[in-house]
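2024-03-11 09:14:02 DEBUG pipeline.ingest accepted 1 chain
2024-03-11 09:14:02 DEBUG pipeline.ingest length=315
2024-03-11 09:14:03 DEBUG pipeline.predict start
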Amino acid sequence: MKHFDETATREPLAFTRLVPALRAAFAAEAHVPPRHVHNIETAGADKGTVLIMPAWSDAGFLGIKTINVFPGNSARGLPGLHATYVLYDAHTGVPLAMMDGNELTARRTAAASALGASFLARTDARRLLVLGTGRIARLLPAAHASVRPIDEVRVWNHRPEGAEALAAQWRGEGFNAQATTDLEAAVRMADIVSCATLATTPLVRGEWLAPGSHLDLIGSFTPDMREADARCFEGARTFIDTAEALQKAGELLDAIAAGTLRADAVQGTLAALCRGERSGRTGSEERTVFKAVGSALEDLTAATLVWQHAGSPSA
């Protein structure tokens, strides 16, 4: 079994390659069972969550990702998410590779965010606001710049020093980036608002969102997590990555309970967009929302790219 560390996992996953690969994967067929979710509680420690996410395809690959999410890690100076990924031969069950699950998760999540925006953000969207400073948030300008003409980036975080540091990092990468402490003003000015946090109380309010804006919600993935309030969905066309989001996303559950969104009014999934079964943005003044909880199909797609880039034989 081969081992791909963080660098080896990252190298094949440029967004100009990964975003089109995800689009092709969502348009095709694959087997993606519902994820297994377990709450972890141990004496004297913060609560955590473990997710187990399998997927396989007719291309001959089977992958299983395990993610450990511990939001309390931020107080310890540790990432809140740790993941591992194992790729197998789907015909024999033979293990092929162990990959860096953190890098795989971050890059495929940012790529899925950009894929959603490629259908739903205005074609001239150039002002991106990022909420969060974690591993996924750091990748969002590069991901969105692969599908939209992003030339202005703002970042907000509940720890302002973290936002300042990330903005400086982005400037070093060539982006026109600044940190902000005025979240409302930043949301009102943004063409794309992308949230990549582990928030449990809403950060973005619907009345702040400008006509024609696109709200991208990719951080929360359980009913107890939420990054936007119920009014964000009022008057907007809402899309989801997979049908599982309707059971797992706290924002959607809140909006449905508040009556600002009906489950049957959700416009479609990424697969429906990629297959041309649903139209994306239909006008420059339309507000759109993309809510993602993550899909094991994205992990499998990214892991297959890594495996193939290494010159490994197909399964």
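2024-03-11 09:14:41 DEBUG pipeline.report The mean pLDDT is 94.
2024-03-11 09:14:41 DEBUG pipeline.predict end
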